[in-house]
Amino acid sequence: MICVPDDAPPVLASSEVWQELSGRATVLYHDTLPGGEERLIERLGQAEVALNIRSSVKFTERVLAACPGLRMISVWGTGTDHIDLAAAARHEVAVANTPGVAAASVAEHALALLLAAARRIPQMDAAVRRGEWPRGQSMELRGKTCGVIGLGAIGREFARLAAGIGMRVVGWTAHARAVPGVKMVPIEQLYASSDAISLHLRLTEETRGFLGAAQFAAMKPGAILVNTARGGIVDEAALAEALAQGRLRAAALDVFASEPLPPGHRFAGVPEVVLTPHCAGITPEVTEAGLRMAVENIWAFLEGHPQNLV
User: Fold this and answer.
1) Which of 77, 95, 247, 262 is the most exposed place for a label (fewest CB within 10 A)?
2) CATH homologous superfamily, domain 103-275
3) Chain segment 215-234, per-residue pLDDT in tens
4) What's the whole-model pTM score?
5) Is 230 among the residues known to form the active site?
């Protein structure tokens, strides 16, 4: 039995892979969020597999302990920070994700955010709509240095795009690797030399709050920060202070510590911040490919040759 505890808003039921999934297995399907541990435990019941759609649903130690029949969680997406992976290992629950599916889409969005922040497109748009005609407020990116933190599939694709518009690309990753077109440098050098910095790290206990006051102080004055990874990687209060002090030119953010963005959030009234609603990887192409891979991960696990395990 497969449980879908959290297809809200619905994407799975209208996908091409839904007929295959529902025709091949018994599926307990829910198109609302469970809203807490008790409800999630109730929904999972005796299911053998959970097809997890939304990262806001937390698979905690308590949830995993209360579902002894659960053998696998198949995640639509790459992030697994909402799953207690240590507890999953203890309870012998396999966790699989869909790596690389959204890489091109997220990288394109990160580049769009960078261009929007550098060219001040939201402010220009608003000014023209008010009848104004502003001049000379844009930053040209060609010839500037772009620092890429994290060089997985998304980081590598973003680096390629940044180089494609004429930027010099430097990079840092926790795991040493050579990336074509990217000069690997110490993180301190990346902060000091980059006119723009794009984050592409996973959110873990080690990366939570990775960018804080000390890191912003070490950055090149007038730099732009782009984050399409996870909100928790950035200390939002420290970022707001760096922007208020004028140390950073702008920030362009698709992810936040709390989502959706709460009313009255500190960034909502800051014109130097470009905001999008955690949508970098949401396109029809990515949605279909990701859902199909998540379902294929289930079949592979049940057939005894698991793939894309975290």
Assistant:
1) 262
2) NAD(P)-binding Rossmann-like Domain (3.40.50.720)
3) 999 999 999 999 999 999 99
4) 0.87
5) yes
